[in-house]
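Budget justification aside, the reviewers requested a transparent look at the raw inputs and outputs of the sequence design task funded under Objective 1. We therefore reproduce one unedited record. The lines immediately below are the structure tokens for a 84-residue chain.
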């Protein structure tokens, strides 16, 4: 998975969700133009791209409004799942 962080969009109050959706659409367009179509989801303050492709992370980091990207592993919350 790729964690996408954004900056000032999170400060937009009532319009935050609209700006976040616009950013997600911009990310989708950049990926689509490069023949990638991963699943994208979001939660407060973060956007998640369900892929571990480093090229996708680099493409996303160039999208206006994105402050950083990080490759991450998705796991459960128990110690056993984390240590796996």
């Amino acid at each position: 998975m790729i964690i996408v962080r954004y900056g000032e969009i999170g400060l937009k109050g009532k319009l935050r969700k609209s700006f976040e959706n616009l950013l997600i659409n911009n990310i989708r367009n950049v990926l689509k133009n490069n023949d990638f179509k991963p699943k994208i989801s979001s939660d407060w303050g973060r956007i998640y791209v369900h892929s571990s492709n480093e090229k996708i992370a680099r493409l996303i980091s160039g999208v206006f409004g994105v402050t950083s990207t990080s490759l991450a592993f998705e796991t459960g919350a128990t110690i056993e799942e984390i240590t796996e």
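The mean pLDDT is 89. The first helix runs from residue 16 to 33. Computational costs for records of this kind are itemized in the attached budget.
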